[in-house]
Design the sequence.
């Protein structure tokens, strides 16, 4: 079982920003920017997005789109950037990152420090926006 599956099952704490029957979104523990969110399928642990069956693949992107809309409403940014790397954890995941510039999506840059209190505040704000959709 991957760490992301354990997070989605509630076995490991996370800052949840959205959830459906099949998908889960939570704040990245090492964010590129405040609000950096990971979106995962809850019931599929394959580490390569293009291995997903069509229904899961399309559902994941539809869920990620809704989360991105909520994220942009909750976190001031010019755009929400998207990245699919999948090399850190062997579980398909989409990164949604609030952007001011294209350089904000550079995974090699120094990560900002975000307090637990701020993460809780961000997660609650994004979840509130998600629930409005």
Sequence:
């Amino acid at each position: 079982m991957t760490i992301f599956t354990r997070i989605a099952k509630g076995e490991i704490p996370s800052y949840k920003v959205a959830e459906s029957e099949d998908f889960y979104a939570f704040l990245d523990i090492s964010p590129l920017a405040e609000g950096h969110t990971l979106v995962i399928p809850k019931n599929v642990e394959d580490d390569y997005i293009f291995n997903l069956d069509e229904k899961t693949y399309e559902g994941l992107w539809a869920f990620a789109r809704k989360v991105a809309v909520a994220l942009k409403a909750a976190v001031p940014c010019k755009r929400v950037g998207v990245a699919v790397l999948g090399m850190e954890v062997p579980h398909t995941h989409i990164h949604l990152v609030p952007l001011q510039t294209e350089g904000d999506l550079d995974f090699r840059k120094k990560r900002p420090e975000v307090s637990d209190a701020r993460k809780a505040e961000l997660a609650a704000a994004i979840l509130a926006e998600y629930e409005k959709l």
Observations:
- Strands lie at 16-19, 23-27, 37-41, 79-83, 94-99.
- The helical segments are 3-8, 54-74, 116-132.
- The chain is about 35% helix and 20% strand.
